[in-house]
Specification:
Blueprint (H helix, E strand, L loop, with lengths): L2 E7 L14 E2 L2 E2 H10 L5 E6 L3 H4 L8 E4 L7 H11 L5 E6 L7 H13 L4 E5 L4 E8 L3 H5 L8 H4 L6 E4 L11 H9 L1
Parallel strand pairs: 1-4, 1-6, 4-5, 7-9
Antiparallel strand pairs: 2-3, 6-8, 7-8
């Protein structure tokens, strides 16, 4: 099974006030950590969707990943998903991940892939306190639903609408995403 990881990192970091994709985390950046964890997984390839600040971010990315530019990033997360999935339709499945979740491990990506192999007719989503979310893996039969998403909620509506199609994975992995300077402080305390 060929699986691509699609990392969404096109936003303009309005709440952070600076491009959060370039904020330091460990010996790399937050986005760099997500990419490194993705590259260590069993995924066939790693792709990053950039939009705002693409010219600043792209030179800091490893050469062994694919960069997809979303010029319509201001239309929200859905536009990045559509742009990425359009280019990755030849894969059997796509994991959608966020560039501001540096604590998601390669082992977690592997768990998603393994569960998708066992349940190929299900979307495998991450369990949050009050909803399902990403990282999530979508088998190819769900690409048409992803290509019809609208707005800035990404795949949340799809992940929380039809529970017969969605399998939830409970995880000890920290799914914390970094949106504000306070979030970044909390991340660095860990």
């Amino acid at each position: 099974m060929k699986t691509a990881i699609l990392i969404l990192a096109a936003g303009n970091s309005r709440r952070m006030g600076t491009p959060k994709q370039l904020l330091k985390h460990g010996d790399t950046t937050m986005l760099g950590q997500v990419i490194n964890n993705s590259l260590k997984s069993r995924a066939s390839s790693v792709h990053v969707v950039l939009g705002a600040h693409a010219n600043l971010i792209r030179p800091n990315l490893p050469k062994n990943i694919s960069v997809i530019i979303n010029k319509e990033f201001e239309k929200g997360l859905s536009s990045s998903i559509i742009k990425g999935v359009t280019e990755l339709q030849h894969y059997d499945s796509v994991i959608i991940a966020l560039g501001d979740q540096p604590l998601v491990t390669s082992n977690y990506f592997n768990e998603l892939i393994e569960l998708c192999i066992k349940k190929p007719n299900k979307i495998i989503a991450s369990k949050y306190e009050k909803h399902n979310g990403v990282p999530a893996i979508f088998p190819s039969q769900f690409y048409s639903e992803l290509l019809n998403l609208k707005g800035d909620t990404g795949a949340k509506s799809l992940l929380n609408s039809n529970y017969q199609l969605v399998q939830v994975i409970e995880t000890p992995v920290n799914l914390f995403d970094v949106d504000t300077p306070h979030d970044y402080e909390l991340l660095n305390k860990n």
